Amino acid sequence: MARVKGGKTSAKRRRNVLSQVKGYRFARSKKERAAKEAIVHAGKYAFAHRRDKKNDFRRLWNVRLNAGLRSIDAGLTYSRFIGTLNKKNIKVNRKMLSALAEQNPESFARLVSKVLP
Prior knowledge:
Layout lengths: L6 H14 L11 H40 L6 H10 L6 H10 L1 H11 L2
């Protein structure tokens, strides 16, 4: 059986790995073994942080909503406002509500006046 030399394939594999770690520092951008490990860790962190990002944004929207409610002096807090929205079956998500509170306070105040008992 003839001998198979894998130079072309190995070079392609190495090039692919090293192209993924462009911009990394030290051995992680130059050596294949360190680069492979860096890719694995980066993927793990990216997966976890995509989940964290959702929590971070929801927390930010809640803070903006609470600040908007307190600025119009309606006597409402975030939790009471959301509870009342749910009871009155008004379906607006927190992202949209926080955008209204931040960018268009007049419209937000009108919405809050609908919610008030």
